[in-house]
Design brief:
two-stranded antiparallel sheet; globular; alpha/beta; 7-stranded mixed β-sheet; single chain
Length: 294
């Protein structure tokens, strides 16, 4: 795996083969003149991340975030060295973790020699999504130039532009996506160590699917990030996030299994409307999923 970015250095420059591979993402065929808008966005984020890594930050938490950022960039860089861009996709649901991943991924594409108009991504919403999560996911996908394929895990999903409802759950949703995008070999995921099944993943950032799942390489650059570090990154860099997080939700699922986190409940006078502090005020990893029914 590529070495982590040393302290106070700029981001690594992606290595690319001398022979280009045609990119395929929802019908976009890039030419030698690449997407100016996407490249401009990547350049802006590259500059922002480089400045952050060089910053003399005021807290130990932000210093820890700088270390995590360098490690994550090394994993993403390794994926870019292993695979052509056409073979990479992103699992994106608008959540805080994959948002960190997306920002770092885009920052490393600033010097890619040939960018498409948009980047391949898959969105698998629950059968009972929050309207605000759907709205944020679709709006941010547009903002960050993602060619978002929506494959719901069950009938429903409440999203416009759904490609296919997969009755077999998430496994079939990914299988359906991969059947339509045969060029995809690896998918970036925002899994962290404290997520369900996250404890089984390697610390190197690469794990091939198993257990009957469709075969692809899972790339999980934020695997070792702590909950509070995710929020320190997003807030320090002023990255927009879904409004539900400001209402006390700390882990986003569907409307039937997701509630504001009780650890953030603000006790007030009897009869007063219950309030919750924002998600970024939670500190402990183990309390992140207290608002989930599973």
């Amino acid at each position: 795996m590529t070495e982590a970015v040393p302290p106070n250095s700029s981001l690594p420059t992606t290595h690319h083969p001398t022979t280009s591979t045609p990119l395929s993402n929802g019908g976009d065929t890039p030419s030698t003149s690449t997407n100016t808008a996407l490249r401009s966005l990547c350049a802006t984020l590259h500059a922002q991340i480089t400045a952050f890594l060089s910053e003399d930050v005021p807290t130990e938490r932000l210093r820890a975030v700088q270390r995590q950022t360098r490690l994550s960039l090394a994993i993403i860089q390794s994926a870019l060295d292993r695979y052509p861009l056409a073979a990479l996709s992103l699992s994106y649901n608008g959540g805080k973790d994959c948002l960190v991943l997306l920002i770092l991924y885009l920052s490393l594409l600033a010097h890619h020699p040939q960018l498409p108009r948009s980047l391949p991504a898959i969105y698998i919403p629950p059968s009972d999504p929050f309207a605000s999560v759907t709205e944020f996911t679709l709006a941010s996908a547009e903002r960050y130039y993602l060619a978002l394929d929506i494959h719901v895990a069950d009938e429903g999903g409440g999203c416009a532009n759904v490609k296919k409802a997969a009755a077999g759950g998430m496994k079939e949703a990914f299988a359906s996506y991969l059947r339509e995008h045969k060029e995809v070999e690896a998918i970036f995921v925002g899994t962290r160590r404290t997520d369900p099944h996250g404890g089984k993943l390697s610390g190197q950032g690469f794990d091939v699917t198993d257990g009957g799942w469709p075969r692809f390489m899972r790339v999980h650059p934020v695997i070792e990030w702590h909950y509070a570090e995710v929020w320190a990154f997003l807030r320090h860099l002023k990255i927009p996030y879904c409004e539900l997080y400001d209402q006390g939700y700390t882990s986003l699922g569907g409307t039937n299994d997701t509630h504001p986190n009780p650890a953030l409940r603000v006790e007030g006078p009897e009869g007063e409307e219950v309030r919750y502090r924002p998600a970024y005020e939670l500190e402990e990893d183990r309390e992140e999923r207290l608002g989930r029914d599973w």
